[in-house]
Amino acid sequence: MLITSSEQWNHTTITEFILLGFGEAEEFQTLIFVAFVVIYILTMTGNILVITLIVSDQHLHTPMYYFLGNLSFLEVCYSSTTLPKMLAGFLTGDKSISISGCFTQLFFFGFLIVVECYLLSVMSFDRYVAICKPLHYATVMSGRVILYLVVGSWLCAASIIVIITSMVSQLSFCGSNEVEHFFCDFSPLLQLSCSDTSHITLFALIFGSIDILPPFILTVTSYVFIITAIFRISSTTRREKTFATCSSHLIVVTIFYGTLIIVYILPNTSTLRDLKKVFSVPYTVLTPMVNPLIYSLRNKDVRESLRRALDRFVCSSENKEQNPLLLIRG
To answer: Which residues pair with 13 in a beta bridge?
Structure first.
């Protein structure tokens, strides 16, 4: 009877998960909360500003900035998938999340991260055509091709993540409900399941490779050709100007894939668990924040667009201040 009771307790189905986040270090909770609030505000402000500039400025209605606008929209959604729940947990102390809420977060996080892989590869291909095939750029990167590439990126990502999330949702979860992460990620959830997860792991590995490996290979291949073409330019000035057109994107790609590889390629050991949690911060939190800064600070077109927008705002404010005086004089 004792064994039976123990087995029943161990296999009680859980109804919610607890996101452990960064542990219970009380002295750092306020500091972490303030830091992530600032990051979230900067992320939303920077990316919305980039989207607004691209939509409103005719000078930025080019393929590269169309992709950048999509990337900024993705970063807004991306940050809103994980940060608000984490901040609410810091503020209220309630770190629980319902099972349905956890699976929803898992889907959107996985979906958006795969879309970002596709968009970064498409942007790499755009730079390759612009630098290595400039005479064919208008033909290759036509409006229809751009639309197909963007829509295809979102649809391909959704098709795989829907299947993986559905398979995870069919698992049984019993015993511990504490997720060793600050959001619902694939590996921490599998570790809590009392079902056999080998088939899901294999499926995720196969289809994850199909979904993520081709964009990665396209990105690397594009930059191999781009860098080779740049080194063939005899003029130092022209070489620097050409490299400047893709340096911003190269920095973003390096940060994104660098941290992604550390988190998902390294083995899941107890020693590396905390390290992988720390390295999850750059691509989930910091990358969405720094992307607008990198593209705006290192991109002349975006800086010029921002300057024109500020000039229009200042002129508009001055006109509003001067109109009442003109009416009084009249």
So the answer is: 174
Q: Are 204 and 213 in contact (CB under 8 A)?
A: no
DSSP state of 12: P
Residues 242/140/117/287 CA torsion (nearest 10 deg): 40
Q: How confident is the model at residue 108 (pLDDT cuts 50, 70, 90)?
A: very high
What mean pLDDT is predicted for residues 89-94?
A: 84
In this structure, what DSSP letter does residue 58 have? Answer: G
Please tell me the pTM assigned to this model: 0.83
Note the pLDDT tens digit of each residue in 121-144.
Answer: 999 999 999 899 989 998 899 889
Query: Helix, strand, coil: what percent of the chain each, to 5?
Result: 80, 5, 15
First CA to last CA across the chain, in angstroms? Answer: 97
By the 8 A CB rule, do 112 and 78 touch?
Answer: yes
DSSP secondary structure letters along 255-322 = HHHHHHHHHHHS---HHHHHHHHHHHHIIIIIHHHHHHHHHHHS-HHHHHHHHHHHHHHHHHHHHHHH
Token pair belonging to 136: 């064919």
| Residue 305 to residue 300: CA distance in whole angstroms | 9
Per-residue tokens: 33 = 């909360």
| Tokens 């505000």 found at | 41
Contact yes or no for 20/187 (Cβ under 8 A): no
Q: Which two tokens stand for residue 120?
A: 């970064």
Structure tokens at 315: 């002129």
Q: Is 254 buried (19+), middle (13-18) or exposed (0-12) by CB count in 10 A? A: exposed
Which positions ≥6 away from 218 have C-beta within 8 Å? 121, 124, 125
What's the CA gap between 40 and 10, in Å, rounded? Answer: 39
Contact 263, 280 (CB under 8 A): yes
